[in-house]
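Lecture 7 notes: from sequence to structure.

We start with a single chain of 240 residues. Read the sequence below before looking at the structure.
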Amino acid sequence: MQNKTAIITGSGRGIGKETAILLAQHVRNVVVCSRTQSEINSVIKEIGNVNNQVNVLGLICDVRVSPQVNSLVQSAVDKLGSETIDILVNNAGVAFDKKLVDITEEEWDQTIDTNLKGAFLFTKAVLPYMIKRRSGVILNVNSAAGKTGFSDLSSYCASKFGLVGLAESLALEIESYNIRVLTIFLGQVATKMWEDYDYNYYEKNKNKMLSPQKVAAKIVEMIFDTKNYANGDSLELYYP
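Now the structure, written as tokens:
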């Protein structure tokens, strides 16, 4: 294992959970976060079953709230004895299946704040450590909705299009520090978010969707494959 520290947001379930479990086989320290303690406990247990040598820190964190984000990053440095944060996977996300005229302001804010502001807050919190060490990887989990608009997904598409702009701008800002900003664009993934979004569609099509495990494997590949994934690069993974 490499003596590195990785933070994965939204790692209580789905893509984030599988990414945390897989990263735990490659790095010394893994930080998982969710808004639900039971999910955190479950992930920590599964990571321990896979590799009981890794240091795991699990913390409740709402990615929309800057004091919670800053506290988590500081706790990761203090409690894990790490001098820096080496890997950040911005994965936390929500979606609402509503037409623009029907979505509430609260739902709009929740989507933008989780999917876009959350990535901004975590990136801002870890960047000083990466810049100081002149190394690091920030990977944003995006969607086909970050490239194409979809009906009834205006808030989600807006957040994911915004995430593209954030990644492209940041890649230019940090290119002299040996930090890589990467993006993975995903098709439909068999996660609870999709199940909650459209249960009937999910039940009918889940076997045709990407698995969280396959997505996690590709994320980890991108993080460690420095030859094929340079700063600013992206990958599209739409089908199983």
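The longest helix spans residues 105-133. Keep this in mind for problem set 3.
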